[in-house]
């Protein structure tokens, strides 16, 4: 049986080892050849135009809500993985705040089953506590045995410091990372936007950045104590970035930090429209916070860009601000927003969105590695010059809650190969 | 200004818009004194009172205002609605609009709902009758109207002159943090030239006052001796999810307008309150009932001011049917 051959022609290969002009021939599910000019490739090869493009290991998102099981009206593993592939991702970590929550081997197995035919790798995450209730530890070893490498109660943080300490101690033997949604629930209260100048004027209850800061500081102390791998999700405040910077400078090596495209590019002023599409936890904050996050990206304080892709149906968003579900989708816009708004060199962007996240969740065998013969063919081809405008109706996600509707962006993923299969060709999903 | 379709915030009006409302309201006061207090200005128009949060005074005031303009009035009571059957606010509002409605008067416990509703409607006007801790623009307009008339009466000047509150010292006292009235009043009073001092314990001030054209004090007595108007706010227990005050007793002792503290007011100073008053908490009964209090005038003026707002948004633009009457 002839194996599928795909030739990516005319691009510049960029990976963790550097960049060079090269064609890439994919044979079956692995990379067959990387060379300056492979001509038209072997007979029968599918030739994909990468002229002027960057050919790179596929992006990896450590923070995706796929909503299945239980929230299929807003997203499924299939639709979310398709959105991911269109955004240039070849792997996503599926958050466990589903219904039921992924707090047991059974639910993890269900996600793995559903993920088998998805158009990117879907790595289930597991809950830290049963039902994400923050009371009883979930059976982490059982889930780790099925391949779970990241545990989180994302959506809410683990409030009880004593329970968080035990979770870290327990997880430290499992080769897993414990990822925290950093918000102190008591300080966050019923707030639906950042507390400050805008919330005071708009009369909306606020979530102070303090609620993030105190939990980040607490978890840094717990990471120091336990030595466990701690990942601080979606940082949004200047002070928490500074706390992580200082902890790392003091030698704390078992901590990583994440920022989202929306916290890196949008501010609380958008809530002035009272449009719940801009409601998210942690909330959009001030221009000074955005600056601090960007600084954290460039100096290495922040290790990964995660999307926190959080689909919601219209009926959860077209309601009063106080009742609206928090969260925004991001898989199909993340790369473009980062390329357009942050002005980072492409190598840095890809480190933050591909190989560093792959390393974080232990996927380096098949994801984020160098583009060399024999490596798994999880690849995306990025057209850095492509200009496009975000039209929510044309997104592949089942949900439409993007805060970037109507935004003109520059740079977009053109082709995506997952395990050698061209799942996206010319910005179109192939299945 | 007269082109505006909605009244969502005092900022929609600006000083000129406020002046226009006050001028219109002045003509409508006379209508209320007629044996049959009614003009045909909005005949054929339908106004829906959609109160998703309890209200007595504001709802009845809008109802009276609409009826005096001969509009048809429908009342929507959230407790008896299909919201209880799971229908969304969006569907509820669109269904009501489909019945042929010209204006929605909206009150909701969550800030921003009138703005959202305005975005959902095809053509009807929205009047904000109080949204969460955001704004209550018609309350601020009736407060300005009341102040301008009282002031004009005392100084013998026309209540309709621009920047009629120029130089006035106003103290707003109490739960500013949770008060939509305070936000609208600060915007309206300062737009008309008054100087505003907020007086409250730090827990009852907004988290940030960046950009607010106000002074702040935590010492009521020192403010009372130099203010022309003291505007008291109710302590809104229903919005207090956390502990903002040790006890109401301590609040009254430190920030209440007690009979003793009221004696610090200069002669001619006015006492205002948006209602409902919690007697004995923020305001002593004998002060509420004293000649300094214009609380009932506020309520009475509310109807004329709301007639003005309805007329401005829904009126045909032809000459006012009140016939150019004035209340001289």
The largest inter-chain interface, given as chain pair and residues per side, is: A-B, 24 and 28 residues
Give the oligomer, counting copies of the same chain as homo and different chains as hetero. heterodimer
Name of the top-level CATH class of the largest domain in chain B: Alpha Beta
Low-confidence stretches of chain A: none
Brief descriptors of the model:
heterodimer, A: 431 residues, alpha/beta, Urease, subunit C, domain 1, TIM Barrel, 2 domains, B: 328 residues, Rossmann fold, five-stranded parallel β-sheet, 9 strands, disordered C terminus
Write the layout of secondary structure elements.
The complex is a heterodimer of chains A (431) and B (328).
Chain A: E1 5-9, E2 12-15, E3 18-21, E4 23-27, E5 30-35, E6 46-49, E7 54-57, E8 59-64, H1 77-86, E9 89-94, H2 105-115, E10 121-124, H3 140-145, E11 150-152, H4 161-171, E12 177-180, H5 185-188, E13 193-194, H6 197-202, E14 206-207, H7 210-226, E15 230-232, H8 238-249, E16 255-259, H9 261-265, H10 287-298, E17 304-305, H11 314-317, H12 334-341, H13 346-360, E18 379-389, E19 408-418, E20 421-425, E21 428-429
Parallel strand pairs in A: 1-6, 2-7, 8-9, 9-10, 11-12, 12-15, 13-14, 15-16, 16-17
Antiparallel strand pairs in A: 1-4, 2-3, 4-5, 7-18, 18-19, 19-20, 20-21
Helix pairs in contact in A: 4-7, 7-8, 8-10
Chain B: H1 14-32, E1 46-51, H2 57-68, E2 72-77, H3 89-98, E3 103-108, H4 113-120, E4 125-131, H5 137-155, E5 169-173, H6 180-191, E6 195-199, E7 214-217, H7 220-224, E8 229-232, H8 248-255, H9 259-262, E9 270-272, H10 285-288, H11 295-314
Parallel strand pairs in B: 1-2, 1-3, 3-4, 5-6, 5-8, 6-7, 8-9
């Amino acid at each position: 049986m002839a194996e599928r051959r795909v030739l990516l022609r005319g691009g510049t290969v960029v990976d963790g080892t550097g960049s060079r002009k090269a064609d890439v021939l994919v044979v079956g599910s692995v990379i067959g050849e990387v060379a300056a000019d492979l001509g038209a490739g072997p007979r029968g090869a599918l030739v994909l135009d990468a002229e002027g493009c960057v050919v790179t290991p596929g992006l990896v998102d450590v923070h995706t809500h796929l909503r299945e099981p239980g929230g299929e009206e807003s997203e499924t593993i299939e639709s979310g993985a398709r959105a991911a592939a269109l955004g240039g991702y070849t792997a996503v970590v599926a958050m466990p705040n589903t219904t039921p929550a992924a707090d047991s081997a059974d639910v993890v197995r269900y996600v793995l089953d559903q993920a088998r035919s998805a158009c990117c790798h879907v790595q289930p995450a597991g809950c830290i506590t049963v039902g994400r209730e923050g009371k009883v530890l979930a059976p982490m070893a059982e889930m780790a045995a099925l391949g779970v490498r990241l545990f989180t109660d994302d959506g809410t943080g683990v409030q009880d410091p004593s329970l968080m300490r035990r979770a870290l101690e327990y997880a430290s033997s499992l080769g897993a990372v414990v990822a925290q949604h950093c918000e102190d629930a008591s300080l966050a209260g019923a707030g639906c936007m950042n507390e400050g100048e805008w919330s005071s004027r708009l009369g909306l209850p606020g979530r102070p950045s303090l609620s993030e800061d105190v939990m980040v500081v607490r978890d840094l102390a717990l990471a120091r104590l336990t030595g466990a791998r701690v990942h601080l999700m979606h940082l949004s405040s200047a002070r928490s970035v500074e706390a992580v910077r200082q902890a790392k400078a003091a030698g704390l090596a078992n901590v990583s930090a994440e920022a989202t495209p929306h916290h890196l590019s949008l501010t609380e002023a958008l809530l002035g429209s009272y449009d719940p599409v801009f409601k998210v936890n942690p909330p959009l904050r001030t221009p000074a916070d955005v600056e601090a996050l960007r600084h954290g990206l460039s100096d290495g304080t922040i290790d990964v860009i995660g999307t926190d892709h959080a689909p919601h149906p219209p009926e959860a968003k077209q309601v009063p601000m106080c009742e609206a579900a928090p969260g925004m989708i991001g898989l199909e816009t993340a790369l473009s927003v980062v390329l357009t708004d942050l002005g980072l060199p492409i190598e840095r962007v890809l480190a933050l969105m591909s190989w560093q996240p792959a390393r974080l969740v232990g996927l380096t065998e098949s994801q984020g590695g160098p583009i060399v013969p024999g490596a798994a063919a999880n690849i995306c081809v990025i057209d850095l010059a492509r200009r496009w405008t975000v039209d929510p109706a044309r997104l592949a996600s089942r949900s439409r809650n993007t805060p970037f509707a109507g935004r003109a962006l520059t740079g977009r993923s053109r082709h995506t190969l997952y395990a050698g299969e061209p799942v996206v060709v010319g910005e179109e999903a192939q299945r | 200004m007269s082109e505006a379709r909605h009244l969502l915030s005092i900022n929609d009006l600006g000083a000129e818009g406020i002046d226009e409302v006050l001028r219109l309201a002045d003509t409508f006061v006379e209508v209320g004194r007629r044996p049959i207090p009614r003009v045909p200005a909005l005949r054929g128009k339908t106004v829906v009172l959609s109160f998703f949060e309890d209200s007595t005074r504001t709802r009845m005031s809008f109802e009276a205002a609409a009826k005096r303009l001969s509009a048809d009035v429908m009342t929507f009571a959230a407790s008896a609605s299909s919201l209880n059957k799971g229908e969304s606010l969006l569907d509820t509002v669109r269904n009501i609009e489909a019945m042929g409605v010209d204006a929605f008067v909206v009150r909701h416990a969550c800030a921003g709902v009138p703005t959202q509703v305005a975005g959902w409607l095809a053509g009807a006007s929205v009047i904000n009758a109080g949204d969460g801790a955001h704004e209550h623009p018609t309350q601020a307009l009736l407060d300005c109207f009341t102040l301008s008339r009282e002031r004009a009466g005392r100084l013998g000047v026309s209540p309709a002159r621009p920047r009629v509150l120029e130089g006035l010292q106003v103290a707003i006292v109490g739960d500013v943090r949770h008060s939509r009235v305070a936000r609208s009043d600060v915007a309206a009073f300062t737009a008309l030239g008054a100087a505003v001092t907020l007086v409250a314990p730090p827990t009852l001030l907004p988290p940030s006052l960046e950009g607010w054209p106000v002074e702040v004090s935590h010492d009521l007595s020192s403010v009372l001796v130099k203010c022309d108007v003291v505007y008291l706010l109710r302590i809104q227990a229903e919005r207090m999810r956390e502990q903002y005050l040790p006890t109401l007793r301590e609040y009254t002792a430190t920030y209440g307008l007690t009979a003793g503290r009221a004696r610090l007011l200069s002669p001619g100073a006015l006492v205002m309150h948006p209602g409902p008053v919690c007697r004995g908490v923020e305001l002593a009964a004998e002060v509420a009932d004293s000649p300094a209090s214009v609380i009932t005038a506020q309520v009475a003026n509310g109807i004329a001011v709301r007639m003005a707002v309805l007329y401005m948004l829904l009126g045909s633009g032809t000459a006012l049917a009140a016939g150019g009457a004035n209340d001289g």
